Amino acid sequence: MKVQLGSALVVLAVLGVSAVQAAGTCSAKKETAKHDSAKKDIVDTAVAAGSFKTLAAALGAGGLVETLKSKGPFTVFAPTDEAFAKLPKGTVEDLLKPENKAKLVKILTYHVVAGKVTAADVAKLTSAKTVEGSEVKIEAKDGKVMVNDANVVKTDIATSNGVIHVIDSVILPN
Q: Are 5 and 68 in contact (CB under 8 A)?
């Protein structure tokens, strides 16, 4: 359970760093943002980003916040709020119910890989074992990377305990 919590935090951290970096309007501000975000853990980074509210809520409901605030390192393939919105109506609400916690944790930890895997590393892989226990398919083609059916839209958001890669869809384990 501790590893599962860490995975969820990694996802949050990736999301938060993305928002911090987007806030910078000049290169000096962007460099400062990158430096500051690397000091924050995955959860703090994601919360600060503001575009991962659904993910943050899910991590809280799944009891994964403390894990993702732990030492790590973790690599999180973090879906945005828009990615969660693509799920069938009512899916997120159902997953957030206490009686569905095990299913929620399984989905969240499927988005996390143990260790720090940068974009350059990901592009060389064909699959990666997730904290959930099964593998995600990775395909790099024409300068784009996909994890299962999700596009990686932002890479290498550094945090103090790992790295976040933002994806445009929620990926689901079998």
A: yes
pTM tops 0.85: no
The total number of structural domains in the chain stands at: 1
Q: What is the pLDDT of residues 59-118, one digit of tens each?
A: 999 999 999 999 999 999 999 999 999 999 999 999 999 999 999 999 999 999 999 999
Strand ranges across the sheet with 162-167:
112-114, 74-79, 162-167, 150-159, 144-147, 135-141, 127-129
Between vectors from CA 111 to CA 87 and to CA 52, what angle results, nearest 5°?
60
What CATH code is carried by the domain that includes residue 37?
2.30.180.10
Rounded to 5°, the CA angle 88-93-94 comes to 85
Are 19 and 13 a contacting pair, CB within 8 Å? no
Instruction: Kindly state whether residue 150 falls inside one of the protein's structural domains.
Output: yes
